[in-house]
């Protein structure tokens, strides 16, 4: 994923996270149980973390060009949609099977972070420090 796409996805996901956070704090507080509200808030929190990670990936892709850093951006975006999306659906519908999808998004987050780690080392010889 190019640094431009990382910035665009990062900004878009942050915009949605702020909106969803406000929606959860105001509109859902009276409608959801404390447990379901906490699940919704976890989705928002991880969306924020990984939207910010996309800005880091954008910067790093300009310093360490290569497939590993690009893969990190893709993993972060897909991770947000699967991890946070499944938590939003679980909280809003109460359908527990959405919780079974959540770990797939978590694994994508982990793969994204490992991709950044390996991206640094795989491009170390080709990019001046």
3D architecture notes:
- With 129 residues, the protein is mainly α.
- The model has no long low-confidence stretch (mean pLDDT 91).
- The longest helix is centred in the middle third of the chain and has 30 residues, at 34-63.
- Helix 3 runs antiparallel to helix 4.
- It is elongated, with a radius of gyration of 16 Å.
- The protein has 4 helices and no strands.
- Helices cover 81% and strands 0% of the residues.
- The two termini are 22 Å apart.
Secondary structure topology:
Elements: H1 3-28, H2 34-63, H3 67-93, H4 102-122
Helix pairs in contact: 1-2, 1-3, 2-3, 3-4
Give short descriptive properties of this protein:
129 residues; mainly alpha
**Residue share in helix:** over 70%
Described by strand count, sense and barrel closure, the largest sheet is: none
Could you state the order of secondary-structure elements as H and E?
Answer: HHHH
Report the count of strand segments. Answer: 0
Low-confidence stretches: none
Secondary structure category? mainly alpha
Quickly count the helices: 4
The 3D shape can be described as: elongated
Strand share of the residues?
Answer: under 5%
The overall pLDDT average reads: 91
Distance between the termini: 22 Å
Cα gyration radius (Å): 16 Å
């Amino acid at each position: 994923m190019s640094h431009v796409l990382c910035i665009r996805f990062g900004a878009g996901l942050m915009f949605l996270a702020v909106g969803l956070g406000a929606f959860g704090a105001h509109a859902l507080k009276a409608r959801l149980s404390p447990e379901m509200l906490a699940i919704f808030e976890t989705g928002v929190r991880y969306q924020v973390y990984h939207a910010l990670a996309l800005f880091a990936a954008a910067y790093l892709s300009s310093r360490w060009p290569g497939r590993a850093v690009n893969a990190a951006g893709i993993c972060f975006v897909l991770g947000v949609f699967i991890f946070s999306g499944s938590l939003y659906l679980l909280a809003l519908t109460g359908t527990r099977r959405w919780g079974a999808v959540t770990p797939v998004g978590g694994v994508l987050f982990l793969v994204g972070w490992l991709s950044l780690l390996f991206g640094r080392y795989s491009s170390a010889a080709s990019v001046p420090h």
